[in-house]
Amino acid sequence: MKLPWTVFFGWLLLALASCNTNDSPTTTETPTAASKSAAPATTSKPTILFFGNSLTAGLGVEPDEAFPALIGQKIDSVGLNYAVVNAGLSGETTAGGRSRVGWVLRKPVAVFVLELGGNDGLRGIPLTDTRRNLQAIIDTVRQLSPQAQIVLAGMQIPPNLGADYAAEFKQLYGELAQKNNLVLIPFLLEGVGGVAKLNQRDGIHPTPAGHRLVARTVWGILRPVLQQPQPAAGS
Prior knowledge:
- Helix content is 43%, strand content 11%.
- The chain has a 5-stranded parallel beta sheet, with helices on both faces.
- By secondary structure, it is an alpha/beta fold.
- The longest helix is centred in the last third of the chain and has 19 residues.
- The termini are far apart.
- Helix 4 runs parallel beside helix 6.
- InterPro entries: Ester_Hydrolysis_Enzymes, SGNH_hydro, SGNH_hydro_sf.
- This is Arylesterase.
């Protein structure tokens, strides 16, 4: 059953209130065991870094059930040579992400998957701020890891804060992707958002089954990126 946006939005607010911005980042590396640091570990494999909020962190599910870990499993199944790092942080806003991205990128990455903005939208943060913060994160990635391919995960919010705000919020992801030549996931929660059986009781965080669908959406966009020839070091 797909819930009305108004019900979904009410649950989103409850979920937002329950998210602790001081939670430690969840880091999952594939195929090695989970690391204690959200920065890319020393590895001979190119790194895919998932940088986001509780959706990326996998709040409420086991680490190996969150969609970044499932992407790692898909990577292994097709024999691609990448390690996955989950740098999701529950409650993260774009401002928070902007402040910590430099620390997370202490080592260069091959692919940077940016999933932030949902908490901004739920809080009604001005879109100029969200856009500016996302652009600053993109600029930092380009500065610290210039060879990285950036994948931007689009988000949507219900129209409770106004139809114009919701429409502009959705559009800003496409505009940022076009401006910065990024790979865009149009809507991270496609087929999952608002579907009761695919979300936990808070109505926002996917169940393991929901994460499997999110992983399918992400994989459809990410796999062609990973199959492209990697730039030679120093090029």
